[in-house]
User: Which sequence fits this backbone?
C-alpha cells in the first residue's frame, strides 16, 4: 500500500514556489520531447550533448571561441574523462575540430539542413509548451505566434524561441543527470513513468492543480509503453524499472503497470529537483521576454 503523506512531507511541500507542480507537469513533457532533438545531432547521447553545447555557445556567444574539455565537462555536469573520450571520437569522425587543444565546430557544421531541422523542431516543441503554460495561467503566449510552420526559414522571433528552448533543454539534462546520480537513463525512465502517470491530467484544465497529485489521480503505465515513448530498448527500460521498484521510487499496480506514488514526489530530493526545474522554466520565460517575445 502506498503510504500517506507524512508530517515531514507536509513541511517539505511548501518550500517550492506556488506554481511549481503545474508548471513542471507541462514542462517535463516538453523536456522528454526535446530529448529527441539529440538524435538530430548524433546517435550517441553524450556526443550529441557535446555537439549541441558547442553549437549553441558559438551561435549565441557572438564569436565565442573554442571550448576546452574541462569547461565542457563543467557545463554538462559530466566527468572530465567521459567528455574527453567522446570529444576525441568526434574529432576523429570530423564532426569537431581541435584548435590548440580546445574544441570547436567546423564551419560546415554551424549551418546545415540538420541544424535547420533541429531548430524547427525546437521551435515547434517550445511553442507547444508556451501554449500549455498559457493554458494553466503562467504565461501569455499569443496562439497565433505558435501557428504551424510553413516552408522557409524561421522568423526572428521563432528563432529566438528555438534557441532559448535549446538552452533550457541543456539545463534540464544537467539537472536530470545530477538528480539521478549520474545514471541518465535511469533518470529518464523515472521521469517517463511519472509523466505518463499524470498525462491525462496534464492535458486538461486540472493541470493547474498546485499540489502533488493524489495517487487516485495517477494511472499505471507499462514498461512497453515507456520503452516506446522514450525510444529505448525494452530490456533497458525493464532493468531500470526493476531498480526503481527495489528502491521504492515506484510501485507496481498488479498487471496494470508502474506508478510513481505521491509519497515519492514529496521526498526531499524530488522536491528540490522540481523547484530547480521550475526556476529553469521561469528563466526560460524571462530570457524570451528579454529577446522581445511576448510571453
Assistant:
Amino acid at each position: 500500500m502506498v503510504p500517506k503523506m507524512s508530517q515531514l512531507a507536509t513541511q517539505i511541500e511548501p518550500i517550492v514556489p506556488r506554481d511549481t507542480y503545474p508548471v513542471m507537469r507541462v514542462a517535463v513533457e516538453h523536456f522528454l520531447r526535446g530529448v529527441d532533438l539529440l538524435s538530430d545531432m548524433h546517435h550517441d547521447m553524450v556526443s550529441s550533448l557535446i555537439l549541441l553545447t558547442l553549437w549553441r555557445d558559438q551561435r549565441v556567444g557572438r564569436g565565442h571561441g573554442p571550448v576546452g574539455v574541462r569547461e565542457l565537462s563543467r557545463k554538462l555536469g559530466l566527468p572530465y574523462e567521459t567528455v574527453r573520450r567522446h570529444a576525441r571520437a568526434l574529432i576523429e569522425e570530423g564532426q569537431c575540430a581541435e584548435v590548440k587543444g580546445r574544441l570547436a565546430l567546423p564551419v560546415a557544421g554551424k549551418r546545415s539542413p540538420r541544424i535547420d531541422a533541429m531548430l524547427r523542431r525546437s521551435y515547434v516543441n517550445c511553442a507547444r509548451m508556451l501554449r500549455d503554460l498559457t493554458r494553466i495561467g503562467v504565461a501569455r503566449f499569443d496562439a497565433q505566434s505558435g501557428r504551424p510552420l510553413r516552408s522557409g526559414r524561421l522568423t526572428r522571433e521563432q528563432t529566438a524561441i528555438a534557441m532559448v528552448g535549446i538552452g533550457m533543454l541543456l539545463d534540464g539534462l544537467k539537472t536530470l543527470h545530477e538528480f539521478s546520480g549520474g545514471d541518465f537513463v535511469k533518470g529518464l525512465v523515472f521521469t517517463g513513468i511519472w509523466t505518463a502517470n499524470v498525462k491525462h491530467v496534464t492535458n486538461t484544465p486540472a493541470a493547474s492543480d498546485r499540489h502533488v497529485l493524489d495517487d487516485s489521480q495517477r494511472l499505471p503505465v507499462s514498461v512497453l509503453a515507456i520503452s516506446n515513448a522514450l525510444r529505448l530498448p525494452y530490456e533497458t527500460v525493464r532493468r531500470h524499472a526493476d531498480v526503481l521498484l527495489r528502491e521504492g521510487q515506484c510501485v507496481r499496480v498488479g498487471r496494470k503497470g508502474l506508478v510513481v506514488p505521491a509519497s515519492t514526489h514529496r521526498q526531499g530530493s524530488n522536491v528540490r529537483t522540481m523547484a530547480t526545474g521550475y526556476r529553469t522554466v521561469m528563466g526560460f520565460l524571462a530570457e524570451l521576454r528579454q529577446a522581445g517575445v511576448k510571453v
